[in-house]
Design a protein that fits this description.
The protein is an alpha+beta fold and about 350 residues long. The chain is about 25% helix and about 30% strand. The protein is built from ten helices and 18 strands. Strand 11 and strand 12 form a beta hairpin.
């Protein structure tokens, strides 16, 4: 049987695509560092193409002219449109009638499992998969390389979107932060401000790309990078004998540490199936609070009900199997997180601290 799900009264609940979608979107999201930074402004749209309008404006000095001469002509920057296809991420599952026959309802000492509970529980699990996928896509937008397909066994990227190539720009050079080795960790070493200098260079480089200082900068760090930062003599001497000393002494795994105008976050545990989202010795620097810098384009689902409608973040739908043997469930999201100025994205690399 195809089309809308039909059920006799008192047997299988009738869930429309709207009801299932509402249930899916109400599932509590899996915690994710990038999502918690609130970088991305959602842009639901009714097409499957994300369109970004850019203008190349740059300041220029106005040449002097003799009094009474014609004025210099103002020249506006070039405007252009960038169009990108919004990726499609579907996920399906099947609940057979026999799989819940004689099964006790979850969390209850008595009472048998019902279709409604079985569907909602399955949607919750599927929602977590979509949460992890979205977090990975957002991190890709922070890196400038959005990986849309990976090998499920090895995690190797198979398909990706290079934001630098799409915007026709070259990535910034990697910033070295000397925080590894005895020279960086010994309290006897003289504080020379190398981490401070590298951090300020990051801030100035980002400001040059976005046209002014950002309200804040976050560094999404791998575990080794974060640990070496906390262990460095430069950072420890800065906090020593101050009211902020407990920040290092009692630092929790996922509590950010602030230094040189940058909030450093430990993202070492971010990942899926043993695949880390951030390399242990790297960090990604992200400007915060910059309007229109990060956007998240959503496209409609490929369902008859959603054609040319304003997109929802996620969709869910179900179909009855032949002869009522079970129900097939599908969820999907159609989303493209973007950084509209990818040269404002910088990568930091852990290096040795030499005398």
């Amino acid at each position: 049987m195809s089309g809308a799900l039909y059920a006799a009264p008192g047997t299988i609940p009738q869930f429309s695509v709207i009801e299932l979608t509402r249930s899916l979107n109400e599932v509590a999201p899996v915690p994710g560092l990038i999502g918690s930074l609130n970088l991305f402004a959602a842009q639901p749209q009714s097409t499957t193409i994300a369109t970004i309008e850019r203008r190349r404006d740059r300041l220029a000095l106005v040449p002097e002219q003799p009094r009474g001469a014609p004025a210099n002509r103002n020249v506006m920057g070039e405007r252009y449109l960038l169009q990108m296809k919004v990726p499609h991420f579907p996920l399906g599952d099947t609940i057979m009638a026999d799989s819940i026959q004689d099964v006790r309802a979850f969390g209850q000492s008595s009472g048998l499992e019902g279709w409604g509970h079985a569907v909602n529980r399955r949607l919750e699990v599927m929602g977590h998969h979509l949460d992890a996928t979205l977090e990975h896509l957002r991190l890709g937008a922070v890196k400038g390389l959005i990986i849309t397909v990976t090998d499920r066994e090895t995690g190797a990227p198979l398909r990706s979107i290079d934001l630098f190539a799409h915007f026709g720009v070259v990535p910034q050079e990697t910033t070295d932060l000397p925080m590894r080795g005895p020279g960086a960790q010994s309290m006897d070493a003289a504080w020379n401000g190398r981490i401070m200098a590298a951090s300020r260079l990051v801030g100035r480089t980002i400001a040059a790309e976005i046209g002014g200082a950002s309200p804040g900068i976050a560094a999404v760090c791998g575990s080794l990078f974060f640990d070496m930062l906390l262990a460095s003599a430069e950072l420890r001497q800065t906090y020593l004998a101050t009211a902020q000393a407990p920040t290092l002494r009692e630092s929790r795994l996922f509590t950010p540490v602030s230094y040189a105008g940058i909030d450093f976050f430990n993202a070492g545990m971010e990942g899926v199936g043993g695949m880390a989202f951030v390399a242990p010795d790297e960090a990604y620097f992200v400007p915060l609070g910059v309007p229109d810098l990060f956007v998240e384009a959503y496209a409609p689902a490929d369902y008859v009900e959603s054609v040319n409608t304003v997109a929802l973040p996620r969709y869910a739908k179900q179909e009855m199997l032949d002869f009522g043997k079970g129900i097939e469930i599908e969820t999907q999201t159609n989303v493209l997180p973007l950084c509209t100025k990818p040269r404002a994205l910088l990568t930091g690399r852990l290096t040795d601290a030499t005398p």
